[in-house]
Design goal:
Layout (H helix, E strand, L loop, with lengths): L2 E6 L4 H12 L4 E8 L7 E4 L2 E4 L1 E2 L10 E4 L3 H13 L3 E4 L15 H4 L9 E3 L3 H16 L2 E10 L6 H15 L18 E2 L11 H14 L5 E8 L6 E9 L5 H9 L4 E3 L11 H4 L5 E8 L8 E8 L3 H14 L1
Parallel strand pairs: 1-2, 1-6, 2-5, 6-7, 7-8, 9-11, 13-14
Antiparallel strand pairs: 3-4, 9-12, 10-11, 12-15, 14-15
Helix pairs in contact: 1-9, 4-6
Length: 332
């Protein structure tokens, strides 16, 4: 028997990807309600042979709904998630609103699917850069506990939403035409440029994106003591984040052992051809479910073969957001 599903934020990049994945994976639903802000109300969306009209997201939107997929931003999640739970729905929330709430499970199905059972109406989807980093790190951590993790992210425009992707393309046209560059959605010029992630900087000098990576990884791994540091950077790529990850393990580990573990890991594919100098690129992962791993090599700065470097590419809109949410819904 299919579930009654509502999608809040259906017209955004992640909302549209949710629809694609529901169709691809044949997620069983009896009814579908498409919700968005005033701006999109009345829009028609053709989906699986039926035309739906986008309705206004309100506190009364969730009567009879079993699963509510939220991808409308943290403010709207805080505003409307409680109403959805009160109406009897389970909320799978893609924003940062509830991720660090101790009462709310934060779930990547390949890692901590069991935490879903602890939900009290809301399950949080982790941040995209967290998901892409730790899907491949988890199987290594299980085999040989990670003591320290250093992450540098190369985050696509898609992380700032559909409007940011469109603006970056517009900026590229403007630069090539020698015109002034538009920065309405993006804080700075991203076309032919890159900049440190422009989320708010805290007192410790880390921005919010970097702290999400640290706090969320510890919560998902149930490892409050794992040492993590990161630098998050926005790069001129449309979609798919890449990450350079340096891992220090408890015991010695070789690149061949890492390859053998990752070859069997769910949600991971390897592109690691040293001879051809061919490793994961955004183009490899775009539109794909897996996180792609390459540049697997010993960290020669650490004694005793306890360090490994890897490079990861993962589609931020897909595994970093929509697919992870649908995988949680499937487990529900």
């Amino acid at each position: 028997m299919g579930k009654n599903v509502a999608i809040a934020g259906v017209t955004g990049a992640v909302g549209q990807e949710l629809l694609r994945i529901i169709e691809e994976r044949k997620f069983p639903f009896s009814s579908m309600k498409m919700l968005a802000s005033e701006r999109s109300v009345g829009k028609k969306i053709d989906f699986m042979g039926k035309t739906y009209t986008v309705e206004l997201l309100t506190t009364d939107s969730f009567k009879g709904i079993d699963i509510a997929l939220f991808s409308a931003g943290g403010q709207r999640s805080k505003e409307f998630a409680a109403a959805a739970v009160k109406a009897g729905a389970v909320v799978i929330d893609n924003s940062s609103a509830f991720r660090m709430d101790p009462e709310v499970p934060l779930v990547i199905p390949e890692i901590n699917a069991g935490d879903i059972k602890k939900h009290k109406g809301i399950i949080a989807n982790p941040n995209c850069s967290t998901i892409i980093a730790i899907v491949p790190v988890w199987p290594l951590h299980k085999a040989n506990p990670v003591k320290r993790m250093v992450v540098s992210t190369y985050q696509a425009a898609s992380g700032a939403g559909q409007s940011a992707m469109l603006e970056m393309v517009e900026q590229a046209r403007e630069v090539l035409a020698d015109k002034p560059v538009t920065c309405k959605v993006l804080k700075y010029q991203l076309a032919f440029n890159l900049y440190c992630h422009d989320s708010k900087i805290g007192d410790n000098g880390y921005n919010e994106e970097e702290m999400k990576l640290l706090n969320e990884t510890r919560k998902i791994f149930h490892a409050p003591d794992i040492a993590i540091t990161g630098t998050c950077v926005r790069v001129p790529v449309l979609r798919t984040h890449c990450e350079s990850i340096n891992l220090e393990f408890t015991n010695p580990i070789t690149p061949d052992e890492v390859r053998a573990i990752l070859a069997k890991a769910p949600g991971v594919s390897i592109i690691d051809d040293r001879k051809a100098n061919r490793f994961p690129m955004p183009l490899d992962a775009t539109g794909r479910d897996d996180c792609y791993v390459g540049r697997i090599r010993q960290d020669i700065s650490l004694p005793g073969n306890r360090g490994i470097n890897i490079w990861v590419a993962g589609d931020q809109i897909r595994k970093g957001a929509a697919l992870n949410a649908i995988q949680i819904a499937e487990l529900l």
